[in-house]
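Query structure, 246 tokens:
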């Protein structure tokens, strides 16, 4: 197995974010589908899904499906060494994952594959009545603003706007996204939709937005939310989070 992605920093920020909620998991590299990682946190509140299609790689030499057990924090530590303009090379040889950076020189690391089995997590079958698309930097600012006030994130979507609210001992916060302001790229809503979620998971995973072009937030009243990050080269990172029902 030998695959090459044009920008190692994309992996750096996404894996670092995932490692805050998931300790271990299995990288699956398939000759037809490309790279995929899917896992659920220990509390079963959030499920993460990372996909890099075959065509997103500059080089993709994979003849059979490879399952590689990994410790996410160990991978994140190595990926933090990625420099600007480094390409990421991943390989698998003699039971070891090869992580290499190619840019100003060549640096290679080898980690033994962990003896763990991939969770068989079914594809979520949900219909969302609110679909919101915002710029990634706007999304990150939203999380930082809400962190100042409370630990619960409340989404409200109407025909014309998307509102994010929180309250705590310090007071209340409300952020309004509209098309007119340019902060809201797209919105499709069936009636008014309102739902609340634990902010901690959004905060932990927000680092992935640094390398996303846009963020799609899909939810329905008192139902799980799906937060999708549009990554370069058609890749996608998403997480599905359970609601807090008051």
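Result returned for the query:
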């Amino acid at each position: 197995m030998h695959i090459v992605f044009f920008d190692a920093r994309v992996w750096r920020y996404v894996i670092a974010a995932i490692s805050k909620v998931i300790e271990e998991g299995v990288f699956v590299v398939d000759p037809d589908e490309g790279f995929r990682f899917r896992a659920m946190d220990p509390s079963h509140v959030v499920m993460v899904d990372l996909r890099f299609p075959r065509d997103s790689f500059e080089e993709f030499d994979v003849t059979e499906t490879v399952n590689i057990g990994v410790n996410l924090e160990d991978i994140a530590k190595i990926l933090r060494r990625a420099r600007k303009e480094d390409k990421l090379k991943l390989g698998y040889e003699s039971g070891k994952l090869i992580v290499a950076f190619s840019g100003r020189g060549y640096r290679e690391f080898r980690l033994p594959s962990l003896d763990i089995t991939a969770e068989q997590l079914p594809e979520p079958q949900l219909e969302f009545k609110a679909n919101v698309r915002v710029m990634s930097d706007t999304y990150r600012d939203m999380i930082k603003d809400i962190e100042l006030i409370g630990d619960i994130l409340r989404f409200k979507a109407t025909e014309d706007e998307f509102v994010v609210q929180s309250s705590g001992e310090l007071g209340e916060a409300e952020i309004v996204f509209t098309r007119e302001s340019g902060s809201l790229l797209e919105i499709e809503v069936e009636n008014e939709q309102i739902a609340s979620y634990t902010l901690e998971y959004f905060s932990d995973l927000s680092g992935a937005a640094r390398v996303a072009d846009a963020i799609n937030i899909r939810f329905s009243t008192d139902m799980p939310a799906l937060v999708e990050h549009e990554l370069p080269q058609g890749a996608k990172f998403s997480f599905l989070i359970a609601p807090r029902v008051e």
